[in-house]
Design brief:
By secondary structure, the protein is α+β, with helices and mostly antiparallel strands. It is built from three helices and 17 strands.
Length: 197
């Protein structure tokens, strides 16, 4: 007997989840377009980046997570999505495709809407757990840590072991839980999301 969680969706009698497809390098947009042409719900998070060449500068849209496209599919459609040209495999853990929670997808969308300077990052550290209490991202929780005299919130997308970094004002957060880890010195802080709820 299958027990449905809050994040599970139903289409008829089939469970639908978000999954992360791993693509060939620089094939994210092509894969996303092909999936949409097949009628498969997909999501490719994009961010605007200023690129510099010797003769010019130009704003371009690039994938937030390189080589990742998210698909919202049932088991049958999951196989069809993998047959798309440019797809390599699903992101897996313990030999099973990793399910990306609906809340994680919604948080990515929310962050991209509200924070145009978001950037991907890796490597999470320990610190005080804080919550943003003001502004459009209020409710997000994270870990506080020193980094280059800037205040950053790092949002962990646990199901695919990725993270996002964005600017946040240190005055817009409150401490939820103190840690016994090393203390934060001065005003330079990094905020890291421990949970997305």
């Amino acid at each position: 007997m299958t027990v449905l969680k809050k994040s599970d969706s139903l289409d008829g009698n089939r469970l639908i989840h978000w999954y992360a497809l791993y693509t060939r390098s620089r094939y994210e947009k092509k894969v996303n377009d092909q999936l949409k042409d097949k009628g498969i719900e997909s999501y490719l998070p994009l961010r605007n980046v200023l690129r510099k060449w010797s003769d010019r500068k130009k704003w371009i849209e690039e994938p937030l997570f390189r080589c990742y496209v998210f698909v919202h599919v049932d088991p049958v459609t999951r196989f069809q999505a993998l047959q798309t040209y440019g797809c390599v495999r699903y992101v897996t853990f313990n030999s099973k495709p990793a399910i990306v929670r609906d809340e994680e997808i919604e948080n990515i969308r929310r962050i991209l809407r509200e924070s145009p300077d978001v950037e991907p990052c890796t490597g999470l550290s320990r610190g005080d757990i804080v919550e943003i209490v003001c502004g459009p991202l209020s409710g997000l929780r994270g870990r506080l840590e020193a980094i280059h005299n800037q205040r950053r919130l790092i949002v962990s997308i646990e199901s695919i072991h990725q993270a996002l970094r964005l600017n946040v004002d240190g005055l817009d957060v409150k401490v939820i839980e103190k840690t016994k880890a090393r203390s934060v010195i001065g005003s330079s802080r990094k905020l890291m999301l421990n949970r997305l709820t």
